[in-house]
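User: Could you check the structure of this?
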Amino acid sequence: MTRETGTAQQLAEEGARLLGGRLAGWRPVSGGDLSMVLRARLASGVEVIVKNGPSPATEAGMLAAIRQAGAPAPAVLAVSDRVLVLELLEDSGRLGREGWAGLGRAVRRLHAAAGESYGWPRDYAFGGVAIPNAPCDAWPEFWAERRLLPEAPALPAALARRLERLARALPERLPSRPVPALLHGDLWVGNVLAGDGRLSGLIDPASYWGHGEVDLAMLDLFGTPDAAFGAGYGRLEPGAGERRPIYQIWPAIVHVRLFGSGYFSLLDRLLTQAGA
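Assistant: Sure, the predicted structure tokens are below.
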């Protein structure tokens, strides 16, 4: 047994214990780049998802908030400091046209949930990349101080200077106080589950309260959503297209930090599109 297999076995066993059951088997689930994700079967025949992550309790709270907003997400069955046990949702393929429309409606419901300020009660992380979430009253301040500027030291000097220049200009580029919408925070197709072409749930959130366009920009970063998504989501605010690259810069930096310099060209292009 390899070390990784042994760790997965322990994770699956702990998930079963949290449910008061006995583990009968497990297998890895594809797509878990930053967390270990397993499909576990208990002796009772019940199947669940068992995963780890930077903070299982924080993720559990995010999933609960998404469900409370009326968007589909797996129910949290159990949680500890190391393990999160989730309802197993159907995941049998890609979204069809109706699935994309359903995703648009679900994200609109998510964004209709309003917070009191920008941020989240706890910080989070993408692997080794910290996600500071201390609240701010003004949205441009949050995007500058909690998203862009903390990443500048990790970039080459020329890119860092461009990022800092853009951050200083955000009060003129972003709305001062948009409604603090509930964000998924990492909305791309890999975090959208589908069954028979229809939406079954949103997974792996990095939620916080912010401008809803952040989720839309992320969904558009590595592919173009089907037109049915826009029909389901509804009208965008004026200027959304101009703000999109500003909101795509942060996830591009995260990809640079997690996956390497191959993403520098994407970051350079987005900074150029943002006028930096």
